[in-house]
Amino acid sequence: MRKLMFTLLALLMGVTVSAQSADKLYEQGKALYDAEKYKEAVPKLRQAAEKGHKKAQYRLGRCYDKGRGVEENDEKAVEWYRKSAAQDYHKAQYELGKCYKNGEGVKKDRKKAVELFIKAARQDNAEAQYALGKSYLKGKGIAADEKKARQWLRKAVNNPKGGKDILADIRKEAAEGDEDAKTILKMVK
Asked: Is the dihedral angle over the CA atoms 14, 16, 22, 27 positive or is it negative?
């Protein structure tokens, strides 16, 4: 019995050390990424991602998506976004949704894109809220519903995490003559 207890304790300590090292690797990788030292960031992010760190998986997906520190590869981006999204990380859910919406790294599937946008939007991701609102407005991947479109678009532009940027982009596009942006601008007032 005592041997079993020591084995369990050692196992728990190993899991804790592994989690801590994944967090530390992620923080180091994120700092390098934020400093635009992508080639140095990728190995740290990869190590943390391989240990199951959802934010590292997402950020490594971004590296492959944008060709930052690695050769651009949409399939690998999707692979890492998918792993992170499976852990309910809203940023990865949104990015994976965009991949499905545009058919980048996966077969185009608007319905799957909307499912992912919904998951991320419910976690208060402003970009996902905006994408979901546009999906309802256009009836792409989901039945058109102007009321739901208005609700999600308003949530997006009023979101303290990115709403002002989204609204600024809508205004810019409307000023450039984009009819969808003009419609959305009227809806969010």
From this structure: negative
User: Residue 97: which of 115, 75, 73 has the closest Cα?
Assistant: 115
- Tally of CA atoms within 13 A in the half-sphere of 100 that contains its CB: 21
Q: Read off the pLDDT of residues 111-128 as tens digits, 9 standing for 90 and up.
A: 999 999 999 999 999 999
Burial of residue 177 (number of CB atoms within 10 Å: 0-12, 13-18, 19+): exposed
| CB-side neighbour CA atoms (13 Å) of 148 | 14
The pTM is what? 0.88
DSSP state of 42: H
Place of tokens 């532009």: 157
The domains of the chain, with CATH numbers, are: 18-81 (1.25.40)
Contact 75, 105 (CB under 8 A): yes
Q: Which two structure tokens, joined as six digits, stand for 15?
A: 């899991």
Question: Can you point out the beta strands (E) in the chain?
Answer: none
Q: What is the DSSP letter of 139?
A: T
